[in-house]
Design a protein that fits this description.
The chain is an alpha/beta fold and about 375 residues long. It has 2 domains: about 5-245, Aspartate Aminotransferase, domain 2, CATH 3.40.640.10; about 245-370, Aspartate Aminotransferase, domain 1, CATH 3.90.1150. It has helices spanning about 5-10, 10-25, 30-45, 55-65, 85-90, 135-145, 205-215, 235-245, 245-265, 295-305, 335-340, 355-370, and strands at about 50-55, 75, 95-100, 120-125, 150-155, 160-165, 170, 180, 195-200, 215-220, 220-225, 270, 285-290, 345. The strands form 4 sheets. The protein has a 7-stranded mixed beta sheet, with helices on both faces. Strands 12-13-14 form a 3-stranded antiparallel beta sheet. Strand 10 (about 215-220) and strand 11 form a beta hairpin. About 45% of the residues are buried.
Length: about 375
Amino acid sequence: MVDLKGQYNKIKTELDQAIQQVLDHSKFINGPEVAHFTRNLEDYLQVKHVIPCGNGTDALQIALMALSLNPGDEIITTPFTFIATAEVIELLHLNPVFVDIDPDTFNLDVSKIEHAITSKTKVILPVHLFGQSCEMETIMSIAKRYQLYVIEDACQSMGTEYLFSDGQRKKSGTIGDIGCTSFFPSKNLGCFGDGGAIFTENQNIASTCKMVTNHGSTQKYYHDRVGVNSRLDTIQAAILDVKLKFLEHYISERQKVAHYYTQHLQCIKEIQTPQIASYTTHTFHQFTIKTNPLKRDHIVQDLKANGIPCMIYYPVPLHLQEAFRHWGYSEGDFPVCEEVSKSVFSLPIHTELTDEQLEYIVNMVKTFAT
């Protein structure tokens, strides 16, 4: 699905130098590269505060912890995403309230959010899935009306821009009260291990998040609250600082691949290529297509048998996961999400795909999908 070795080889000299510099000074925790990358990411995102942390899941948990929520408070989110989004809600003894998804973008259906709000609702947690933004203007309007926090799960949308109706543009993750991202190696901006970050314009939230990442402490051995131990290693920060310079190129290359796929597959009536909403750019963390649910698994098996990696994100919606059975949801509660989970699969999309590989992939999809 990704070619990390090929990507590394193209910028090997810069990466090796950055890593060697860390090895030379040996400040492996909170070394100068962490602060340098943080400043550069703040500049890229045009956001006041970036707080680096250990991974994207930690970023989501820390964001929730920073809001001083109480057990039983409700978090509105999507059932169609990676488990981490809901996992942190469970870990903090909060209650997830799922809302069905839009059948074209696979993101939260904003028309259903208001119906899910109760007196216990405290947060709306949209996920910018596969690389395009949720409809944030409406979400922010609802949040303001009901005095709710908005935490953006931007773990799959680094570099995506939201286009406001007044012409303003903002990067995903910088619109709500808090944004969260992951630097997992397969992401558009990925490190060589685990890493994550939190974004916010709010000084108080930023200070609290920073404290939470460091065992609830601002002064060594003095702890004002219970926190976690979640840091971005210096070596990973050095790697990310190099790769940040190439991020727009990586996004452009992914968009070219997506354009090729769309151009050659949109004519197949059995396939629905990604639908890009008018209010967002798409950075294509994944290229996810929709097909007949009766044929999907067979298509995936045939593609893999012919040497084409492909993945199903996500075969079991969160509300039907065994781990969350006690939440009381059942099959049929979110019909769009359930139908999509049986219909979608993702093709390889990364910066190293060749024209020959793309042609082969497209021909195989045409062969097995028709």
